[in-house]
Amino acid sequence: MRGSIICIGNRFIEEDAAGLRVFDRIQALHPLPVGIELVEGGLAGLNLLPLLEHGGRVVFVDAIRGFTQAGKIVLLTHREILQAPGHFCFGHDAGLPYLLAVLPKVCEGELPEEMVLVGLEGSCVDETIEKAAEMSVSIAVHGLRGLG
Amino acid sequence: MVKITKGINIPLNRAEGDLEINVEVEDGIITEAWSAGTLFRGFEGMMQGRGALDGLVMTPRVCGICSITHLTAAVEALDAIAAVTPPDNARRLRNLALMVETVQSDVRQAILMFMVDFANRDAYGDHPLGADAYGRYQPLAGRAALEVIRESKRLVQVIAIIGGQWPHTSFMVPGGVTSIPEIAKLLQCRIIVERFQSWYERSILGCSIERWLAIGSVADLETWLEESPAHRDSEVGFFLRFSRKIGLQALGKGPNRFLSYGNLPLPLETEVKGTGGRMTAAGYAACAAVFSFEANKISEDVSHSWYEQDTVALHPFAGKTKPYASGQSGRLYSWVKAPRYGGEVIETGPLAEMVISGNPLFCDMIEKDGPSVMARQLARLVRPAGLLRPMALWLDELVEKRGEPFYHSVRTIPDGQGAGMIQAARGALGHWVKIQDEKISHYQIITPTAWNGSPRDEQGARGAWEEALIGTPVKDIKNPVEAGHVVRSFDPCLVCAVHCLSKGQERGRVTVGSFR
């Protein structure tokens, strides 16, 4: 199955940079498996929609706040992402919940079969970033069952 | 006299990231306003000591909405320092990418961020046009709300083709561009732009671009509105009808002074028309009286901002961005500086572009009634009408002249200073850069939201939307939608901030209550 890893965030704001640190790590460490695409999603917001119209599996990687202890990783399903605040209204700062809420209503291609968020809480040490990078690749290739 | 000091929020957070606006209301009228940017950005400090070209990679990542815009300003500053004029084809490609970003922003902001307030049932549930507005703009369900996302998302393919990648292209370099799109790709861009134009004419204008651009006065606008059901039912037609019913033509006056740096440098040989070498004119206007633009009149006042204080407001080539948040409690209230032009507060954005470019409709509106929420938002909604045809022309010219240069060689960036001054979707954007020993020794950015959303200056003069809020009636302090209309008509964006997924997060608000 085709898989995408889309790393989100602002690398200039420490509390929002974790997703892009994971992007840098995956790019540096992993020759990506065939069929897996790595995207620096940054702050592209709604302009990520065209990347979500090709079916397959999509793994988002982003900083999170208020889900767990600082430095921990949380996996959130599509449904759990949609339960977060901010899914309802668009703004310049519209995030992942809005993107996923509007996706099925405007998609002109094939919706992803599976979408997962690898969420990193607060400041993360290098070990956590590396663990998230490995986890993201594994999920992109095998789905959640790839975590064993 | 009744003075309300109870703190109340409206959900401004959906639009503006880290922005807080405090207002005082007396007898149902806003009498004071303070606009505060609540996050220190500090990008300028990150740039110092980096390689001369690093601004091309770093500044587009400052903002997801204005990525191409920052890239354009950054490269124009380096062009100036290297004393190089990019070849015509590079101008065309750079302009096209910037125009895509502007057009996309304009229609999304209008429908998804401004007109969505017309679907606010607490405020307009009993309004005669309220049900229609709800059907059009209801979040995630309104037909216009979904259509605008569907149509505007395709535009990004043009940037992907021109820039060779998406997101985060850095295809603009001093001396030109790094990509030479194939003819087939240019034709693909042409089809995307044509398709978007067709939707824009059908749904947003309700008429052809030629018919819209023939409107030369407020009286003409009335004629156009009554001319056809397609005009009245279009998004522009509906916007006009709804706005007048709720009095937006009388709200949000602001300073009534305008600034545009001018935009879209013209290729030496082109069918596209402009003024002073740019498609969009540069200038300063007091009401509709336009004066030439003088870049040395720009200064940054930090008297009410949390920065190390200077005795005078400095030009951005001399400006500093050193946070200093202690002391002077109460006087300092924003991380946004206060840019001024000739010491004056100005408004920038689409309305400023229309007035300074001499658009007869908007000049007539300003002369008759002054600036307003309605004029400001209408200017944004119809700005693409002036951009889509030149986009198609430049694509045609690229196909015809593809064999001509796209790049003039620039081997190193010499010591020196230069400014990249352009019009972003939200208004005047400038990057002021100094290079020494092939490294950045100075970088200052003034964004459109700094111009429009500045705090007070040394003279106590309010920023543009602080001023525009004064006199705004607030019928229901629990749902102060009128204040939201005023602020959102400037399309504020402090989004170069935090996006992460949060539980119960709340950012950005208008608070009714004392800030003194």
What does this structure look like?
The complex is a heterodimer of chains A (148) and B (516). Chain A is an alpha/beta fold. Chain A has helices spanning 18-29, 78-82, 96-106, 126-142, and strands spanning 3-8, 36-42, 57-65, 73-77, 114-121. Helices cover 30% and strands 24% of the residues of chain A. The longest helix of chain A is centred in the last third of the chain and has 17 residues, at 126-142. Chain A is globular. In chain A, strands 2-1-3-5-4 form a five-stranded mixed β-sheet. Chain A has one domain (3-147): 3-Layer(aba) Sandwich (Rossmann fold), CATH 3.40.50. Chain B has helices at residues 13-16, 43-47, 55-58, 67-82, 88-114, 121-124, 130-137, 143-153, 156-163, 183-205, 209-213, 218-227, 229-233, 235-245, 350-356, 360-369, 373-400, 448-452, 464-469, 481-488, and strands at 3-4, 19-26, 29-37, 172-173, 176-177, 257-265, 278-286, 289-291, 298-301, 338-341, 416-424, 427-436, 439-446, 501-502, 509-512. Chain B has a single domain (3-512), classed as Cytochrome-c3 Hydrogenase, chain B (Orthogonal Bundle), CATH 1.10.645. In chain B, 40% of the residues lie in helices and 16% in strands. In chain B, a hairpin with a 2-residue loop joins strand 7 (278-286) and strand 8. Chain B starts with a strand and ends with a strand. By secondary structure, chain B is an alpha+beta fold. Chain B is built from 20 helices and 15 strands. Mean pLDDT of chain B is 91; it is low at 4-16 and 496-500. At the A-B interface, strand 2, strand 3 and helix 3 of A face helix 1, helix 5, helix 8 and strand 14 of B. Strand 3 of chain A pairs parallel with strand 14 of chain B, so a sheet runs across the interface.
